[in-house]
Design brief:
There is one protein chain. By secondary structure, the protein is α+β, with helices and mostly antiparallel strands. It has 2 domains: about 140 residues, Elastase, domain 1; about 170 residues, Orthogonal Bundle (Neutral Protease, domain 2). It has 8 helices and 15 strands. Strands 4, 5, 6, 9, 10 and 11 form a 6-stranded mixed β-sheet that branches. A 5-stranded mixed β-sheet has the order 7-3-2-1-8, covered by helices on one side. The radius of gyration is 20 Å and the shape is globular. The protein starts with a strand and ends with a helix. It binds asparagine, zinc ion (ZN) and calcium ion (CA). Calcium ion binds next to helix 3 and strand 12.
Protein backbone atom coordinates (compact mmCIF):
# COMPACT_ATOMS: atom_id res chain seq x y z
CA UNK A 1 0.00 0.00 0.00
CA UNK A 2 1.06 3.59 -0.47
CA UNK A 3 -0.37 5.44 2.43
CA UNK A 4 -2.06 5.36 5.79
CA UNK A 5 -5.38 7.17 5.52
CA UNK A 6 -8.35 8.03 7.68
CA UNK A 7 -11.66 7.45 5.94
CA UNK A 8 -15.20 8.42 6.82
CA UNK A 9 -17.67 5.62 7.44
CA UNK A 10 -21.43 5.98 7.46
CA UNK A 11 -22.38 3.05 9.65
CA UNK A 12 -25.75 1.47 10.20
CA UNK A 13 -25.58 1.34 14.01
CA UNK A 14 -22.87 3.77 15.18
CA UNK A 15 -23.40 6.94 13.15
CA UNK A 16 -20.56 8.52 11.17
CA UNK A 17 -17.18 7.14 12.24
CA UNK A 18 -13.50 7.51 11.34
CA UNK A 19 -11.98 4.42 9.77
CA UNK A 20 -8.38 3.34 9.34
CA UNK A 21 -7.89 2.89 5.60
CA UNK A 22 -5.05 2.61 3.08
CA UNK A 23 -4.43 4.20 -0.30
CA UNK A 24 -3.10 1.92 -3.02
CA UNK A 25 -2.51 3.76 -6.28
CA UNK A 26 -5.66 5.83 -6.60
CA UNK A 27 -7.89 3.35 -4.76
CA UNK A 28 -8.71 3.33 -1.07
CA UNK A 29 -8.87 0.00 0.76
CA UNK A 30 -10.69 -0.96 3.95
CA UNK A 31 -7.33 -1.99 5.36
CA UNK A 32 -6.28 -0.66 8.76
CA UNK A 33 -2.49 -0.77 8.75
CA UNK A 34 -2.29 1.02 12.10
CA UNK A 35 -4.07 -1.77 13.97
CA UNK A 36 -2.26 -4.92 12.99
CA UNK A 37 -3.39 -4.83 9.36
CA UNK A 38 -7.08 -5.58 9.82
CA UNK A 39 -8.93 -5.97 6.48
CA UNK A 40 -12.65 -6.07 5.80
CA UNK A 41 -13.85 -8.34 3.00
CA UNK A 42 -17.10 -8.75 1.13
CA UNK A 43 -18.45 -12.30 0.95
CA UNK A 44 -21.29 -10.96 -1.26
CA UNK A 45 -23.39 -13.99 -0.23
CA UNK A 46 -21.18 -16.28 -2.27
CA UNK A 47 -20.58 -19.73 -0.84
CA UNK A 48 -16.94 -20.06 -1.87
CA UNK A 49 -14.68 -20.59 1.08
CA UNK A 50 -12.25 -17.73 0.42
CA UNK A 51 -12.11 -14.57 2.49
CA UNK A 52 -14.01 -12.68 -0.20
CA UNK A 53 -13.11 -9.41 -1.91
CA UNK A 54 -11.37 -6.60 -0.07
CA UNK A 55 -13.64 -3.55 0.12
CA UNK A 56 -12.29 -0.67 -1.96
CA UNK A 57 -13.54 2.84 -2.65
CA UNK A 58 -12.72 5.84 -4.83
CA UNK A 59 -13.11 8.70 -2.33
CA UNK A 60 -12.57 7.16 1.15
CA UNK A 61 -16.17 7.80 2.21
CA UNK A 62 -17.80 4.46 2.92
CA UNK A 63 -21.40 3.28 3.23
CA UNK A 64 -24.66 5.16 3.35
CA UNK A 65 -25.70 4.84 7.00
CA UNK A 66 -28.93 3.12 5.94
CA UNK A 67 -30.03 -0.49 5.86
CA UNK A 68 -29.68 -2.01 2.40
CA UNK A 69 -30.39 -5.45 1.03
CA UNK A 70 -27.60 -5.16 -1.54
CA UNK A 71 -24.91 -7.83 -1.31
CA UNK A 72 -22.21 -5.28 -2.18
CA UNK A 73 -23.33 -2.49 0.17
CA UNK A 74 -20.44 -0.97 2.15
CA UNK A 75 -22.49 -0.07 5.21
CA UNK A 76 -22.18 -3.47 6.92
CA UNK A 77 -18.45 -3.31 6.25
CA UNK A 78 -18.24 0.08 7.97
CA UNK A 79 -19.83 -1.34 11.12
CA UNK A 80 -17.59 -4.44 11.06
CA UNK A 81 -14.43 -2.39 10.52
CA UNK A 82 -15.43 0.08 13.23
CA UNK A 83 -16.12 -2.82 15.60
CA UNK A 84 -12.73 -4.39 14.94
CA UNK A 85 -10.79 -1.14 15.32
CA UNK A 86 -12.65 -0.09 18.46
CA UNK A 87 -12.15 -3.52 20.04
CA UNK A 88 -8.45 -3.38 19.12
CA UNK A 89 -8.20 0.07 20.78
CA UNK A 90 -10.09 -1.15 23.86
CA UNK A 91 -7.72 -4.07 24.48
CA UNK A 92 -4.69 -1.87 23.84
CA UNK A 93 -5.77 1.09 25.99
CA UNK A 94 -7.38 -0.90 28.80
CA UNK A 95 -4.96 -3.82 29.20
CA UNK A 96 -1.98 -3.04 27.00
CA UNK A 97 -2.93 -6.03 24.85
CA UNK A 98 -1.75 -5.84 21.23
CA UNK A 99 -4.43 -7.75 19.38
CA UNK A 100 -5.97 -11.15 19.86
CA UNK A 101 -2.65 -12.96 20.28
CA UNK A 102 -0.89 -9.95 21.83
CA UNK A 103 1.55 -10.06 18.93
CA UNK A 104 0.39 -6.96 17.06
CA UNK A 105 -1.26 -8.96 14.28
CA UNK A 106 -4.92 -8.35 13.41
CA UNK A 107 -7.61 -10.84 12.47
CA UNK A 108 -9.82 -9.98 9.48
CA UNK A 109 -13.56 -9.51 9.06
CA UNK A 110 -15.96 -10.58 6.34
CA UNK A 111 -19.53 -9.40 5.85
CA UNK A 112 -22.53 -10.38 3.70
CA UNK A 113 -21.94 -14.01 4.58
CA UNK A 114 -24.65 -16.46 3.50
CA UNK A 115 -28.16 -15.40 2.52
CA UNK A 116 -30.35 -13.86 5.22
CA UNK A 117 -27.95 -15.57 7.63
CA UNK A 118 -28.92 -14.63 11.18
CA UNK A 119 -25.63 -15.09 13.03
CA UNK A 120 -22.09 -13.87 13.44
CA UNK A 121 -19.14 -15.97 14.54
CA UNK A 122 -15.45 -16.19 15.31
CA UNK A 123 -13.31 -18.91 13.74
CA UNK A 124 -9.87 -19.97 15.00
CA UNK A 125 -9.26 -21.63 11.62
CA UNK A 126 -9.52 -18.48 9.49
CA UNK A 127 -8.58 -16.22 12.42
CA UNK A 128 -11.53 -14.08 11.38
CA UNK A 129 -14.91 -12.63 12.30
CA UNK A 130 -17.84 -13.39 10.00
CA UNK A 131 -21.18 -11.59 9.84
CA UNK A 132 -24.48 -12.52 8.26
CA UNK A 133 -26.96 -9.95 6.94
CA UNK A 134 -29.80 -11.04 9.23
CA UNK A 135 -33.49 -11.36 8.50
CA UNK A 136 -34.35 -10.25 4.92
CA UNK A 137 -30.68 -9.29 4.50
CA UNK A 138 -31.38 -5.91 6.11
CA UNK A 139 -30.26 -6.37 9.73
CA UNK A 140 -26.56 -7.27 9.52
CA UNK A 141 -25.22 -8.68 12.79
CA UNK A 142 -22.45 -6.06 12.88
CA UNK A 143 -23.31 -3.89 15.89
CA UNK A 144 -20.39 -2.86 18.09
CA UNK A 145 -21.20 -5.17 21.00
CA UNK A 146 -21.61 -8.16 18.67
CA UNK A 147 -18.32 -7.41 16.87
CA UNK A 148 -16.50 -7.07 20.20
CA UNK A 149 -18.18 -10.30 21.37
CA UNK A 150 -16.89 -12.20 18.33
CA UNK A 151 -13.37 -10.76 18.48
CA UNK A 152 -13.23 -11.61 22.17
CA UNK A 153 -13.80 -15.28 21.30
CA UNK A 154 -10.39 -15.00 19.63
CA UNK A 155 -8.84 -13.57 22.80
CA UNK A 156 -10.39 -16.29 24.97
CA UNK A 157 -9.22 -18.95 22.58
CA UNK A 158 -5.66 -17.64 22.81
CA UNK A 159 -5.62 -17.19 26.61
CA UNK A 160 -7.69 -19.35 28.99
CA UNK A 161 -8.94 -21.45 26.08
CA UNK A 162 -12.23 -22.14 27.86
CA UNK A 163 -13.79 -25.26 26.29
CA UNK A 164 -16.98 -24.36 24.42
CA UNK A 165 -19.35 -26.72 26.26
CA UNK A 166 -20.69 -27.19 29.77
CA UNK A 167 -19.83 -24.61 32.43
CA UNK A 168 -16.55 -23.56 30.78
CA UNK A 169 -18.56 -22.87 27.61
CA UNK A 170 -20.91 -20.61 29.54
CA UNK A 171 -17.89 -18.76 30.93
CA UNK A 172 -16.47 -18.46 27.40
CA UNK A 173 -19.73 -16.91 26.17
CA UNK A 174 -19.97 -14.61 29.19
CA UNK A 175 -16.41 -13.41 28.57
CA UNK A 176 -17.48 -12.31 25.08
CA UNK A 177 -20.58 -10.58 26.45
CA UNK A 178 -18.60 -8.88 29.24
CA UNK A 179 -16.00 -7.40 26.90
CA UNK A 180 -18.69 -6.71 24.28
CA UNK A 181 -20.36 -4.46 26.82
CA UNK A 182 -17.04 -3.00 27.97
CA UNK A 183 -16.15 -2.04 24.38
CA UNK A 184 -19.52 -0.38 23.90
CA UNK A 185 -18.98 1.79 26.99
CA UNK A 186 -15.35 2.43 25.93
CA UNK A 187 -16.47 3.74 22.52
CA UNK A 188 -18.85 6.27 24.12
CA UNK A 189 -20.57 6.53 20.73
CA UNK A 190 -23.70 8.69 20.98
CA UNK A 191 -25.52 6.54 18.40
CA UNK A 192 -24.88 3.39 20.47
CA UNK A 193 -24.29 4.41 24.09
CA UNK A 194 -23.02 1.80 26.53
CA UNK A 195 -25.48 -0.59 28.12
CA UNK A 196 -25.60 -3.99 29.80
CA UNK A 197 -27.66 -5.46 26.96
CA UNK A 198 -26.22 -7.59 24.17
CA UNK A 199 -27.40 -7.08 20.58
CA UNK A 200 -29.90 -4.31 21.31
CA UNK A 201 -29.18 -2.76 17.91
CA UNK A 202 -29.66 -5.73 15.58
CA UNK A 203 -33.36 -6.45 16.28
CA UNK A 204 -32.75 -10.17 16.11
CA UNK A 205 -36.10 -10.94 17.77
CA UNK A 206 -38.05 -8.60 15.46
CA UNK A 207 -39.62 -6.75 18.39
CA UNK A 208 -36.75 -4.46 19.32
CA UNK A 209 -35.67 -6.55 22.30
CA UNK A 210 -31.99 -7.41 22.86
CA UNK A 211 -30.45 -10.84 22.65
CA UNK A 212 -29.29 -10.90 26.29
CA UNK A 213 -29.60 -8.93 29.56
CA UNK A 214 -26.69 -8.89 31.99
CA UNK A 215 -28.56 -7.40 34.97
CA UNK A 216 -31.14 -10.19 34.91
CA UNK A 217 -30.26 -12.81 32.28
CA UNK A 218 -33.59 -14.68 32.58
CA UNK A 219 -35.32 -11.73 30.89
CA UNK A 220 -34.40 -13.37 27.56
CA UNK A 221 -36.65 -16.32 28.45
CA UNK A 222 -33.83 -18.90 28.38
CA UNK A 223 -30.77 -17.81 30.36
CA UNK A 224 -30.16 -18.68 34.00
CA UNK A 225 -29.82 -15.93 36.62
CA UNK A 226 -28.09 -18.21 39.15
CA UNK A 227 -25.77 -21.20 39.21
CA UNK A 228 -27.31 -24.63 39.78
CA UNK A 229 -26.07 -28.19 39.28
CA UNK A 230 -28.00 -28.42 35.98
CA UNK A 231 -26.57 -25.18 34.53
CA UNK A 232 -24.00 -27.20 32.54
CA UNK A 233 -26.80 -28.77 30.48
CA UNK A 234 -27.90 -25.44 28.98
CA UNK A 235 -26.69 -24.06 25.65
CA UNK A 236 -23.55 -21.98 26.30
CA UNK A 237 -25.40 -18.77 25.32
CA UNK A 238 -27.71 -19.41 28.30
CA UNK A 239 -25.29 -20.91 30.84
CA UNK A 240 -23.41 -17.63 30.45
CA UNK A 241 -26.20 -16.08 32.56
CA UNK A 242 -24.74 -16.34 36.07
CA UNK A 243 -21.35 -14.95 34.96
CA UNK A 244 -22.98 -12.06 33.07
CA UNK A 245 -25.08 -11.43 36.19
CA UNK A 246 -21.95 -11.58 38.38
CA UNK A 247 -20.29 -8.97 36.13
CA UNK A 248 -23.29 -6.64 36.32
CA UNK A 249 -23.54 -6.97 40.12
CA UNK A 250 -19.80 -6.46 40.60
CA UNK A 251 -19.89 -3.37 38.37
CA UNK A 252 -23.15 -1.71 39.33
CA UNK A 253 -24.55 -3.51 42.37
CA UNK A 254 -27.97 -5.00 43.03
CA UNK A 255 -31.32 -3.26 42.80
CA UNK A 256 -32.64 -0.59 40.46
CA UNK A 257 -30.45 1.75 38.42
CA UNK A 258 -30.68 3.77 35.20
CA UNK A 259 -27.57 4.21 33.04
CA UNK A 260 -27.53 6.10 29.70
CA UNK A 261 -31.33 6.01 29.75
CA UNK A 262 -31.65 2.23 30.25
CA UNK A 263 -33.23 0.94 33.45
CA UNK A 264 -31.92 -2.15 35.21
CA UNK A 265 -33.05 -4.08 38.25
CA UNK A 266 -30.62 -6.76 39.29
CA UNK A 267 -31.77 -9.40 41.79
CA UNK A 268 -29.68 -11.63 44.09
CA UNK A 269 -30.29 -15.29 44.89
CA UNK A 270 -30.06 -14.79 48.64
CA UNK A 271 -31.80 -11.42 48.91
CA UNK A 272 -28.46 -9.79 49.76
CA UNK A 273 -27.50 -6.28 48.69
CA UNK A 274 -24.37 -6.11 46.56
CA UNK A 275 -22.50 -2.82 46.20
CA UNK A 276 -20.72 -2.43 42.86
CA UNK A 277 -17.08 -1.38 42.46
CA UNK A 278 -17.54 0.14 38.99
CA UNK A 279 -17.14 -1.35 35.56
CA UNK A 280 -13.51 -0.28 35.12
CA UNK A 281 -12.32 -2.42 38.05
CA UNK A 282 -14.68 -5.29 37.23
CA UNK A 283 -13.22 -5.44 33.72
CA UNK A 284 -9.65 -5.49 35.05
CA UNK A 285 -10.53 -8.34 37.42
CA UNK A 286 -12.20 -10.41 34.68
CA UNK A 287 -9.31 -9.84 32.23
CA UNK A 288 -6.67 -10.83 34.78
CA UNK A 289 -8.68 -13.91 35.75
CA UNK A 290 -9.04 -14.86 32.06
CA UNK A 291 -5.38 -14.35 31.19
CA UNK A 292 -3.66 -15.49 34.41
CA UNK A 293 -5.84 -17.96 36.30
CA UNK A 294 -8.53 -19.61 34.13
CA UNK A 295 -7.80 -22.71 32.04
CA UNK A 296 -9.73 -24.67 29.41
CA UNK A 297 -11.66 -26.60 32.07
CA UNK A 298 -12.47 -23.78 34.52
CA UNK A 299 -16.03 -24.13 35.82
CA UNK A 300 -18.10 -21.67 37.83
CA UNK A 301 -16.45 -22.61 41.14
CA UNK A 302 -13.11 -22.13 39.41
CA UNK A 303 -14.21 -18.74 38.05
CA UNK A 304 -14.93 -17.62 41.59
CA UNK A 305 -11.43 -18.70 42.65
CA UNK A 306 -9.82 -17.15 39.55
CA UNK A 307 -11.50 -13.77 39.99
CA UNK A 308 -10.69 -13.73 43.71
CA UNK A 309 -7.05 -14.43 42.85
CA UNK A 310 -7.19 -11.61 40.30
CA UNK A 311 -8.77 -9.19 42.79
CA UNK A 312 -6.17 -10.14 45.38
CA UNK A 313 -3.30 -9.56 42.93
CA UNK A 314 -4.72 -6.23 41.72
CA UNK A 315 -6.16 -4.76 44.91
CA UNK A 316 -5.13 -6.96 47.85
CA UNK A 317 -6.85 -9.75 49.74
CA UNK A 318 -8.39 -7.43 52.34
CA UNK A 319 -9.64 -4.92 49.76
CA UNK A 320 -13.18 -3.74 49.13
CA UNK A 321 -12.77 -5.09 45.60
CA UNK A 322 -11.91 -8.59 46.84
CA UNK A 323 -14.92 -8.63 49.16
CA UNK A 324 -17.20 -7.39 46.38
CA UNK A 325 -16.07 -10.23 44.10
CA UNK A 326 -16.95 -12.75 46.82
CA UNK A 327 -20.32 -11.09 47.48
CA UNK A 328 -21.25 -10.92 43.78
CA UNK A 329 -20.51 -14.63 43.23
CA UNK A 330 -22.44 -15.59 46.37
CA UNK A 331 -25.36 -13.52 45.02
CA UNK A 332 -25.46 -15.70 41.88
CA UNK A 333 -25.25 -18.87 43.98
CA UNK A 334 -21.58 -19.60 43.40
CA UNK A 335 -20.33 -20.07 46.93
N1 LIG B 1 -22.99 -15.81 17.55
C1 LIG B 1 -22.59 -17.03 18.16
C2 LIG B 1 -21.47 -16.81 19.15
O1 LIG B 1 -20.63 -15.94 18.99
C3 LIG B 1 -22.18 -17.99 17.13
C4 LIG B 1 -22.20 -19.37 17.63
O2 LIG B 1 -22.95 -19.74 18.50
N2 LIG B 1 -21.35 -20.19 17.12
O3 LIG B 1 -21.40 -17.51 20.13
ZN1 LIG C 1 -20.31 -16.10 21.29
CA1 LIG D 1 -25.10 -3.51 24.08
Amino acid sequence: YQGIETGTGKSLYSGTVSLGTALSGSTYQLYDTTRGGHKTYNKARSTTSSAGTLFTDADDTWGTGAASSSSTDQTAAVDAAYGAQTTWDFYKNTFGRNGIKNNGVAAYSRVHYGNAYVNAFWSDTCFCMTYGDGEANTNPLTSLDVAAHEMTHGVTSNTAGLNYSGESGGLNEATSDIFGTAVEFFAANSSDPGDYLIGEKIDINGDGSPLRYQDKPSKDGSSADYWSSTLKNLDVHYSSGPANHFFYLLSEGSGAKTINGVSYNSPTSNGSTVTGIGRAKAVQIWYKALTSYMTSTTNYAGARTATLSAASALYGSTSTEYKAVAAAWTAVNVA
